[in-house]
Amino acid sequence: PKPDDAADALAVAICHGHSCKLSSLQGL
Question: DSSP of the chain, one letter per residue?
Fold first, then answer.
């Protein structure tokens, strides 16, 4: 995979791990 794909996958994993999950719960 391309480095960008790896970065996206990592960002998504981190996102689901905390900030995105909290944001979705708060309706942000």
Answer: --HHHHHHHHHHHHHHHTHHHHHHHHT-
* 4 CB-near residues (< 8 Å, 6+ apart): none
**Which residues, at least 6 apart from 23, have a Cβ–Cβ distance to it below 8 Å?**
none
What pLDDT digit, counting tens, does each position of 1-28 carry? 677 888 888 877 776 666 655 666 665 5
User: What does the block give as tokens for 13?
Assistant: 């994993």
Tell if the pTM clears 0.85, that is, is over it: no
Find tokens 């791990």 and name the residue: 17
